[in-house]
What does this fold into?
Amino acid sequence: MIATNTVAQGDSREVGLDSMVSDGFTITRAVQSRSWPASSANLEYAAVWGTREVVEEDVPRIADDIAVRRISTLLEPAGRVDGMPARLAENSGLAFIGCYVLGMGFVLEPEEAQEWIASDTRNAEVLFPYLNGEDLNQRPDSSASRWVIDFNDRTEEQAATYKLPYHRLVERVKPERQRRKSNGEYALRKPLPERWWQYGEKRPAMRKAIADLSEVLVIALVSKSVMPLRVSTNQVFSHRLGVYATDSFADQAVLSSSLHWLWAITYSSTLETRVNYSPSDAFLTFPLPQRTERLEAAGRALENGQRELMARRGIGLTDVYNLVADPAVTGAEDVGHLRNLHVEVDAAVLEAFGWRGIELDHSFYTVRKMQRWTVGASNRVELLDLLLEENHRRMQNQLAPASTLSGTADAEAMPLG
It folds into this structure.
């Protein structure tokens, strides 16, 4: 079978390869992702060979030209733990996708926003910096390059009292939102035409979850680095961002670790050579370790190290991690320091899980066509197995009657937030 490489990712995998394997299909050879030959298009394909016949355990399978014991539906070497991860209730309500504004008429330049506020200070109640994934990963201070009008749940009557912002939306948003088809019906789904001064998705659950926080962790949903950053909550987050409702440095360490990255690239999809991070698949299923003092210190040191390097070199997060992942960059003390901070982050996460005796062997490795400073290849499958085992254990506890869980509190991970 030949398909695009998404056949082994996300929902496509669940309805396709997962169903086939559960119905008795054995994958005997696989190509996870390669460029389509002699094509001008940037197309990545996957190939799968298999059978419904019984295949003896000692017969080698071939995954990307390497003999392995088994091949998973992710089209990579399978570990000793079977099955897919389940979504954990303890992680619910902690990770969100940002607001879907739906209309460039909401967006304005910072200078214009300041002029509006100077003309009427009440406008500051509905004008905010507008942070997107490009700003987060490309600007040295991860600040928003533009501002946005946000009426949130205000009625039209209330919105109209903010004259300049309201009239901007009347001119630039209302006509598009209330565009009609040839039969006279609105072209957009309800309630978008009727509530044209509000966002397409206001994310009330996210707003409630972060209401008492001055800072949160956010991550670009499509990126090479798959790295969260700490930012102010006094802004609007774009739908291109994932938002974690936490300001804990321990949580920052966990979400910046190689373990979370491995989990994310395994259970999210890809877009070319970038990871298309899925909060529902990569975060809701990730078993979080207990917060520890060592994790807290490692997360704080990593935050400081990232910010200092970005400011000193005048570059954004993506360029920072291009340097970190480049084996040719050997003499730069600031880059070497950041690599060492990641070694400490990973060690602190392992300790928080209580997993000992695993040599992380940090160096430069290529994983799914992405070069990374990360843990060694020999232990990646074992780390994923340990995480999957922990996910399954917590899922069983989650399904068990409350009376059977007494005495297990010390073993339970502390959820974010």
